[in-house]
Write a structure and sequence with these properties.
Layout (H helix, E strand, L loop, with lengths): L11 E9 L5 H11 L3 E13 L2 E7 L2 H14 L4 E4 L5 H14 L3 E3 L17 H8 L5 E2 L3 H8 L6 H12 L6 E3 L10 E4 L4 E4 L12 H14 L4 H17 L15 H6 L3
Parallel strand pairs: 1-2, 1-4, 4-5, 5-6
Antiparallel strand pairs: 2-3, 7-8, 8-9
Helix pairs in contact: 1-7, 2-3, 3-4, 5-6, 7-8
The chain binds adenosine-5'-diphosphate (ADP) and the ligand Cc1ncc(COP(=O)(O)OP(=O)(O)O)c(N)n1.
GO biological process, one term: thiamine biosynthetic process
Pathway: Cofactor biosynthesis; thiamine diphosphate biosynthesis; 4-amino-2-methyl-5-diphosphomethylpyrimidine from 5-amino-1-(5-phospho-D-ribosyl)imidazole: step 3/3
Keywords: ATP-binding, Kinase, Nucleotide-binding, Thiamine biosynthesis, Transferase
Length: about 270
């Protein structure tokens, strides 16, 4: 094979997150999303969860040395265009990841995962302050859902005006772009983008389904993939919104609880023989 002197022929994205044995969220959702969007996916696993569409049964955090070693191993050889974080579980893991992000000067999307849809805690409460003060300042984009945005901003959100106040408060913590996801709203799932100057509302029709497991992971992974492919943050967010809406629309109906979405719906539409 001839070497490509222009650099790699495919964009590379790294997910630093937890494993979901059910395959719908976490590392598995991120890698499927990267693949579906034409990006070479790389992973550093922070925790292993025993999980299905009904909920999380057990969690085992990985040790700090093995988390750091995964990041260093891929950085020293493969390289990464953009990284994202998902489930980080503890203050110790957040601090270790932040050190590696700074060491390798990674462009970073932070999905501030706190609680799974079934109610299980994926981030210890004592780690929230570390997330706010240590990781958010390193983020190019942060993508809280409505409950996460309330925790990070200390603002009670009742409507779009509240989302805007919360986005400004989160922006003040240091990320360069804030995207508050509206999936938990009782109305339409309108997301809000804020870059410190401009607000952009990203509306969508609510899809009436219980199969929304892994939507947050998938949305942030799609933003990461589009950034890795060279799009601006605004365009990456717009494209990720179209992708996540289609993925929910085409959910395959797997499992007895909150089932996964279809990460490969775009591929299915063009390769349906
Ligand atoms: N039922 C739905 N119909 C359409 N879009 C949805 C629906 N639920 C969530 N979304 C979208 O999916 C993305 C993830 O949002 P959300 O579910 O709030 O995140 P999380 O999984 O982190 O709680 C957002 O773009 C949100 O607007
Ligand atoms: C291992 C792991 N990481 C993250 C989540 C949460 O994923 P999310 O996309 O927020 O979707 P729901 O779990 O809320 O459906 C997870 N469950 N497991």
């Amino acid at each position: 094979m001839t070497e490509n002197l222009q650099g790699p022929a495919i964009a590379r994205a790294l997910t630093i997150a937890g494993s979901d044995s059910g395959g719908g969220a976490g590392i598995q959702a991120d890698l499927k999303t990267f693949a579906a969007l034409g990006v070479y996916g790389i992973s550093a696993i922070t925790a292993i969860t025993a999980q299905n569409t009904l909920g999380v049964r057990a969690i085992q955090e990985q040790s700090i040395p093995i988390i750091e070693a995964q990041i260093d191993a891929v950085m020293e050889d493969i390289g990464v265009d953009v990284a994202k974080t998902g489930m980080l579980s503890s203050s110790e893991i957040i601090n270790a990841v932040a050190r590696r992000v700074q060491h390798w000067q990674l462009r970073l999307v932070v999905d501030p995962v706190m609680v799974a849809k079934g109610g299980s805690t994926l981030l210890q409460s004592e780690a929230i302050e570390t997330l706010r003060t240590v990781l958010l300042p390193l983020a190019e984009v942060v993508t809280p859902n409505l409950p996460e945005a309330e925790v990070l901003s200390l603002v009670k959100i009742a409507d779009m005006a509240g989302m805007k106040v919360a986005a400004q408060a989160i922006y003040a913590l240091g990320p360069r772009h804030v995207v508050i996801k509206g999936g938990h709203s009782e109305d339409q799932p309108t997301d809000l983008y804020f870059d410190g100057q401009q607000f952009i509302e990203l509306p969508a029709k609510r899809i009436n389904t219980r199969h929304t497991h892994g939507t947050g992971c998938t949305f942030s992974a799609a933003i990461t993939a589009f950034l890795a492919r060279g799009w601006s943050v605004e365009e990456a967010v717009r494209r990720a919104k179209v992708y996540i809406t289609g993925a929910i629309q085409h959910a395959p109906g797997i499992g007895q609880g909150h089932g996964p979405i279809d990460h490969f719906w775009l591929w299915d539409q063009t390769h349906n023989e």
